[in-house]
Amino acid sequence: MTPTAQPRRLTSTIIIALAFSVPAWAKSPLASGSGGAVATISAPASQAALAILNKGGNAVDAAVAAAAALGVTDPFSCGVGGGGFMVIYLARENRVITLDHRETAPAAFQSSAFAPGGKAMDYDTAIASGMAVGVPGTVRGWHDALERYGTMSFKQVLAPAIKVAQDGFRINDNFVALVKENEKKFAMFPATAAQYLKDGKPLPAGTLLRNPDLAKTYRLLAQGGVKAFYSGKLARAIVDTVNQPPVAAGATARAGRMALADLANYEARWRQPVRSSYRGYELVGMPLPSSGGVAIAQALNILEGFDLASMPRAKAEHLYLEAARLAFADRNAYLADPEFVEAPVQGLLSKEYAARRRELIDPTRARHHAEAGDPYPYQQDPSVPLRPAASGKARLLSESAHTTHLAVSDQDGNIVAYTFTIESWGGSGITVPGYGFILNNEMTDFDFSGPHPNVPEAGKRPRSSMSPTIAFRNGKPAFTIGSPGGSTIITTVLQTIVNHIDFGMPMPQALDAPRISERNGLATSIEPGFAGSAQARALEGFGQRWDASVEEIGAANAIVFNPDGTVTAVSEGKRHGVGSALVQKRGH
Ligand code: GLU
């Protein structure tokens, strides 16, 4: 269904009726109830979260349980070999805090890592290498979140994932397709090939896949805590694997430069969220080093000056694309790790600056390329004189749905929106032998050559797009949303918010609608089936144009907090297989 065909402002009662029309046993992308809720892309992960909620765990406990299970069932998107961003709402204190556990460049990492001799290297070569691996932050993030805001131990929350890894799970078509896509990369690394390939080809769909090595790793964490990852044998294995990637005969992979001290010194960061307002909602999102919260807030600030709800849908969508383009021009030019770069975040978030950017939009005609603006006069302290030099050219890659996002809430009203990743599908492709997890290639999220705020530097975190978001209305949670998909994460979250708030689509339809992603590139990314649609043709009337290569964009998960006190968990109905939404039964 195209968004234009959506009924307007269905009540939450209808959403609930829809949810209950799905048989209880089916893997369902939609569920409503009155206790805790979870939405992930994986049934075992959602079940892990529900089991923890039912045992009395809170949203933080359940989020870590789901994440650990996702590390087993979606090992090409996420896991302990990577990092992520968690947004936590603490209901009793009515407070939001965010946890940055992004991978970090090792101390010996060099700015020329991906541009030897000054020339940016081939992206695929950069990915499948020890050099691409950042110091993993996931385990530190899980630990810090549990220690400060959880109620359970690693032992308790990892138990469901250990069982999935030990007993196995049936791989689906989506899993097989991802292995197929990565055959060449996985074949380079024997420990990865042994787990995911048979005679160099993917295992067939329906195969029961076990990962005893990962079960062992999780047991080590359950017994030894965070230290078991960042020191000792496992840390040594990570460092050895990065510095001397164990490759198949005839294959070569560039070595990294990670030291035991990089792991021992790794820290997650508690950060204040990015806050913005949009048509009576307060949006709370991820700050730098993710560009997600700032870019989404800026695009919405630009859009707020247009009455999208009252205009023809195509015109409103044209404005959505133009606002995204302008926000991306600034994001691409200014945003990077805040510990290394003084980004003009206040200016970018100011409503006055958004008004100036809005003036650049032609409501009848696509711009095709936007230059970065000048947010510095809108900084609270406009005297900050340093403006970074940036080429403004964005590296736009095929980013479909790498990464994973999960949403959890508990019966006390706490919420966790959590996006975590190993960067590309299958990360660097390098499994730590004997430990069952794939190492990230997050360092390739740096701009390979400068000048640019996001160039590689030792100890720096590459700019991300991950956008776990919580929206409030009248001081109460309204919904939470996030998605995978590289830089398309920003447009997926933005578009879904516009679909929901401006076009009045209930969240399931807002998620389901065809995604169109404008990131100030040459053309807008679209999904299969969109080209030639009435919606596409209407937008072409504004001069919008589409990228020829089409693929699914994102795999979002959301929870809606209905005005009557019920909750509705919403996952994808068709993208990336079908997602899994679950809610607690009354009485838990
Ligand atoms: N590395 C990406 C980011 O941090 C996430 C991976 C992806 O979805 O492509 O934005």
UniProtKB/TrEMBL annotation:
InterPro entries: GGT_bact, GGT_lsub, GGT_peptidase, GGT_ssub_C, Ntn_hydrolases_N. Keywords: Acyltransferase, Glutathione biosynthesis, Hydrolase, Signal, Transferase, Zymogen. The active site is at residue 403. Pathway: Sulfur metabolism; glutathione metabolism. Cleaved by autocatalysis into a large and a small subunit. Its EC number is 2.3.2.2, 3.4.19.13. Residues 1-26 form the signal peptide. The keyword Protein biosynthesis does not apply. One of its GO terms (molecular function) is glutathione hydrolase activity. This is Glutathione hydrolase proenzyme. The lineage of its organism: Bacteria, Pseudomonadati, Pseudomonadota, Betaproteobacteria, Burkholderiales. The gene is ggt.
